[in-house]
Amino acid sequence: MRCPFCQNEDTQVRDSRPTEDGASIRRRRQCPACGARFTTFERAQLRELVVVKRSGRRAPFEREKLARSVAIALRKRQVDADRVEKLISGIIRRLEASGETEIPSDMIGNLIMAALKRLDPVAYVRYASVYKDFQDAKDFQEFLDGQMSFDEETDELDFADKDAK
């Protein structure tokens, strides 16, 4: 593993342990050249996923892009990093378990929305405003009004323990 600080090719693993959800291995590493310490995560990839965009264009699925979208929605929110990691891993597991190698972008967006709704309602609305392309305040109000009537129904998606807030 290359050191992200000095680009040295040789780093040493100091500690390895499974993450809380057991979906990956957390490794603490140290660079012998500059002494910097950093953390890496190792995950099993069950299959190569391809995202089918609304335009029909295909692109490889990128975990980092999913994580970035979730992080933007959760910016300045008090949500534990382990819960966010569990949410992201849960979405990916769900995509891999679908049995499909080509995943419509709408499916990914809907899974993110359902997971964020359970994790943090503000992040949910933030994500929805971009995903659903809100143009003005009226769009927010219509979305929120629609959610109030939907709240009695239960989603089957359970990526994050909503009681652990």
Question: What's the topology here?
Answer:
Layout: E1 12-18, E2 24-30, E3 37-43, E4 50-52, E5 58-60, H1 63-73, H2 81-97, E6 102-104, H3 105-119, H4 121-131, H5 137-150
Parallel strand pairs: 4-6
Antiparallel strand pairs: 1-2, 2-3, 4-5
Helix pairs in contact: 1-2, 1-4, 2-3, 3-4
Features:
about 160 residues, alpha+beta, 3-stranded antiparallel β-sheet, 3-stranded mixed β-sheet, 5 helices, about 40% helix
Structure in words:
- Helices cover 41% and strands 18% of the residues.
- The protein contains five helices and six strands.
- The relative contact order is 0.12.
- It has two domains: 8-44, no CATH class; 46-155, no CATH class.
- The strands form two sheets. Strands 1-2-3 form a three-stranded antiparallel sheet, with no helix packed on it.
- It is α+β, with helices and mostly antiparallel strands.
- The protein has helices at residues 63-73, 81-97, 105-119, 121-131, 137-150, and strands at 12-18, 24-30, 37-43, 50-52, 58-60, 102-104.
- The protein is globular and about 55 Å long.
User: What would the average pLDDT be, to the nearest integer?
Assistant: 84
Largest sheet: 3 strands, antiparallel
Helices, by number, come to 5
Termini distance?
A: 35 Å
Written as H for each helix and E for each strand, in order along the chain, the element string is: EEEEEHHEHHH
Shape: globular
How many strands in all? 6
Uncertain runs with pLDDT below 50, 5 residues or more? 152-165
- Number of folding domains? 2
Q: What helical percentage do the residues reach?
A: 40-55%
Biggest sheet strand order reads 1-2-3
Q: Which structural class do you get from the secondary structure elements?
A: alpha+beta
How much of the polypeptide forms β-strand, as a percent range? 15-25%
| Rg (C-alpha, Å) | 18 Å
